[in-house]
Structure formats: C-alpha cells, structure tokens
C-alpha cells in the first residue's frame, strides 16, 4: 500500500562528501517491507521545483517507525533537501515500486550485492533482510573515491565487503567488475543498483546467472501516470515497462538498458 505523509525528520547529517543520511519517522514506515522500494520526496514548501525526487529506502526500522534515505546532493532538488533540519517535516509519498525479490530458498546461498555510488543505499536494507533469512551476503561497492564512500563498516558487519574506486583511493582501482574479478567472487544470485553502464557490464558478464538490476531512471509522477520513465522491452519495438511502477528492479534482460 502506498501513502502520503508529512514525516518528522529525526536526524540529518552529511556522512561523506556531498552524501547525506536522512532519518524520517511516521506511520508510512509500517508499509515499507521490500528492499529496493523508493519514496518520492517533496523537497520544498513551494511549487519550485514542481516534481518530487525519488530516493531509495536504505534502512527500515519498524520498532521506532523510522526509515533512512541516503542521497547525493547533486542538483536543485537535493540541494534544497539538504537544508532541512531535524524537527522539521518532509512530505513523503511511498513506498513506491517493486523491490528486490527475496525468499527462503536463498537460505545458506551466497548472494552478491553490487552497488555503484548513489546505487549503494538500497543494498543496505536488502543485505539486512538477506542476512535475516540466513543467506550469505557479499558486497562489492564502487565509489568515485574514498571521500565519497559511505556505510563501509555498516556493510562489513553484514558480510564480506570489497570496494572499487575510480582513483584507487579505496579498494581496487577501477570498476566494481574489476573488484569482482580481483577477489574471484563466486555467487548464487546477483543484485545490483547503480549507473546504467555498470548494470550493462554485469548483465553482459553474467548471462547464465540469476541477476536482478535496479534502475534509477529520471521520473515524473513516480506512480505510473506520466510515462517519463519508460524502458523498452527487448525484441519488441512497441513494448515498454515503466521503471516507477513495473520496477525499479527488473530481472536482467527484461528491459533494454539504455533508457
Ligand atoms: C528509483 C530511484 C531511486 C533513487 N535512489 C536514490 C538514492 O537512494 N540516493 C540518491 O542520491 N539518488 C537516488 N536517485 C536519484 C535521485 O532521484 C536524483 O539524484 C535526484 O532526483 C536528483 O535531483 P536534483 O534536483 O538534485 O538534481 P537534478 O538537477 O534533477 O539533476 C542533477 C544531477 O542528477 C542527475 N539525475 C537526476 N535525476 C536522476 C536520476 N533519477 N537518476 C540518476 N541521476 C539523476 C542529473 O543527470 C544531474 O547530473 C534515485 C532515483 C530513482 C529513480
Ligand atoms: S514516473 Fe511517471 S510513469 Fe513512471
């Protein structure tokens, strides 16, 4: 079920260069169950900017009705969001979209979670839930550099955690695929979230495996009404899926990764 609520900002802090962690509290949290779902946040009190901003749910805590989002301050919307203070309210619609599929068949199985930059946040709740059902999460996280990296210890507490950075300041120098090769990581299932070139590289490399990809496409309405987020279906020029309501998570090969 999706709802809309003015949620209380419990904490808000910069956890890496231009990366912010925002914890919100309210009844909507109780509707958040699946890792990989996202919320649509109104970033200002006025009509400018008009559109909400989609941000993934990074952690859910039903006990105190809080959930966490982690976002990069990149443009007008996230810059406005970064100014909000604890004690203020934020207008949130969610949870939205279909998240990562997980089930008890993964018990005892090695599951690789691969994230790039702002694609890393939803993997944290995913890893927590995988661990809770007895799966063995392994993380490969890619960042620009060590200054923009975050949640290193948090992921390490859940399972083996490896890094890649563009400049080599943390982990393997290069892409997440380089780190997977370097550490010779084997796995039963792969989940990934990050830039499209990274998702494409993983899809191409692991055609024989069970792979799920989360797309962070630009959005308008976030609820399937505006067609801003459509992706094509392979071998079907007229066919499409909406990232906001059919996704953002798709099985590898289900949509063309160019949108
Ligand atoms: C389902 C989903 C989940 C997301 N989860 C997160 C998250 O957990 N943390 C996070 O930091 N960001 C996340 N994003 C991306 C986030 O929505 C954008 O960074 C944000 O909307 C940018 O808004 P802005 O006004 O600050 O920047 P804009 O002025 O709109 O753009 C600034 C820069 O961000 C890029 N950008 C804008 N929208 C997107 C987008 N949807 N995806 C990728 N790049 C974009 C632009 O190309 C530009 O370089 C998610 C996007 C989607 C669709
Ligand atoms: S964002 Fe409007 S249909 Fe997906």
Automatic annotation (TrEMBL):
CDD domains: DHOD_e_trans. [2Fe-2S] cluster binds at residues 221, 226, 229, 244. FAD binds at residues 53-56, 70-72, 77-78. This is Dihydroorotate dehydrogenase B (NAD(+)), electron transfer subunit. The keyword Transit peptide does not apply. NCBIfam families: PRK00054.1-4. Belongs to the PyrK family. Heterotetramer of 2 PyrK and 2 PyrD type B subunits. It comes from Metabacillus sediminis. Responsible for channeling the electrons from the oxidation of dihydroorotate from the FMN redox center in the PyrD type B subunit to the ultimate electron acceptor NAD(+). Keywords: 2Fe-2S, Electron transport, FAD, Flavoprotein, Iron, Iron-sulfur, Metal-binding, Pyrimidine biosynthesis, Transport. It holds the Pfam family DHODB_Fe-S_bind. Pathway: Pyrimidine metabolism; UMP biosynthesis via de novo pathway; orotate from (S)-dihydroorotate (NAD(+) route): step 1/1.
């Amino acid at each position: 079920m999706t709802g809309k609520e003015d949620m209380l900002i419990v904490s808000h802090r910069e956890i890496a260069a231009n990366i912010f962690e925002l914890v919100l509290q309210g009844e909507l949290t109780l509707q958040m169950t699946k890792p990989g779902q996202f919320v649509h946040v109104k970033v200002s009190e006025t009509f400018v900017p008009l559109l909400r901003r989609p941000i993934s749910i990074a952690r859910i805590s039903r006990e105190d009705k809080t959930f966490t989002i982690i976002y990069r301050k990149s443009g007008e919307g996230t810059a406005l969001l970064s100014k909000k203070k604890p004690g203020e309210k934020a207008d949130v619609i969610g949870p939205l979209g279909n998240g990562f599929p997980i089930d008890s068949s993964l018990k005892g199985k090695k599951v690789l979670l691969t994230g790039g930059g702002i694609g890393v946040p939803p993997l944290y709740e995913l890893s927590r839930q995988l661990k809770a059902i007895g799966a063995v999460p392994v993380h490969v996280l890619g960042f620009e550099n060590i200054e923009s990296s975050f949640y290193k210890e948090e992921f390490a507490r859940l399972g083996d955690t490896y890094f890649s950075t563009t400049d080599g300041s943390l982990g393997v120098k290069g892409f997440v695929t380089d780190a997977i090769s370097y550490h010779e990581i084997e796995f039963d299932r792969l989940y990934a979230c990050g830039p499209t070139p990274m998702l494409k590289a993983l899809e191409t490399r692991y055609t024989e495996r069970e792979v799920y990809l989360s797309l962070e496409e630009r959005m308008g309405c976030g609820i399937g009404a505006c067609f801003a987020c459509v992706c094509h279906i392979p071998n079907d020029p007229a066919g499409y899926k909406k990232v906001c309501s059919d996704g953002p998570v798709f099985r590898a090969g289900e949509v063309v990764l160019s949108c």
